[in-house]
Amino acid sequence: LGLLPYGIGDILSALFALLYVWFAFVKIRSIPLALAIINNSLRDVLLGLIPFYIGDVIDFFHKANRENMQLVRGFVEGGKAVQSVLLIVLMIVLIIAMIVLLVSLTTWLIHLIGSLF
User: Fold this and answer.
1) By CB distance 3.0 to 4.6 Å, which of 3, 41, 50, 87 could disulfide with 55?
2) pLDDT tens digits for range 39-91
3) Distances, alpha carbon 47 to alpha carbons 23, 36, 61, in Å
4) What are the backbone angles phi and psi of residue 3, rounded to the nearest 5°?
5) Cβ-count burial 8-30 (b if 16+ within 10 Å, e if not)
């Protein structure tokens, strides 16, 4: 999915994480676990947005959904999954910044190519 342009594939793959978030909130009733899953998914989206398919290669090795399952298993088996809300906010800010940079880069390239002709 990560090969779909404009981050669409990364966002679609992040939607799969909603199942883990729902499970953490509704079935396990753990806010720290849900925050850890959200943080992991946002990190996956951020890595996938790195341009020129570099993000896709990194994303291929990251495997966010596998890590989410390990977080759930670790929590159920007695471990704790504690992540800071500040990290989630930071990931959201970085994702927005990456999207703005990608749009700016695309616009600049279009103008550059247009000025050549």
Assistant:
1) 50
2) 888 887 777 777 766 777 666 676 776 777 777 777 766 655 444 566 777 77
3) 24, 17, 11
4) -80, -10
5) ebbeebbeebeebbebbeeeeeb
- Nearest by Cα to 98 from 52, 61, 63, 34: 52
* 84's tokens: 């800071």
Name the residue with higher pLDDT: 32 or 22.
Answer: 22
Distance (Å, whole) CA 6 – CA 109: 15
- What is the CB neighbour count within 10 angstroms for residue 32? 16
Global confidence as pTM: 0.58
Measured distance CA(24)–CA(11) in Å, rounded: 20
Who has greater pLDDT, 4 or 20?
Answer: 20
Rounded Cα–Cα distance for residues 88 and 29 (Å):
19
Among 25-34, 43-52, 107-116, top mean pLDDT goes to 107-116
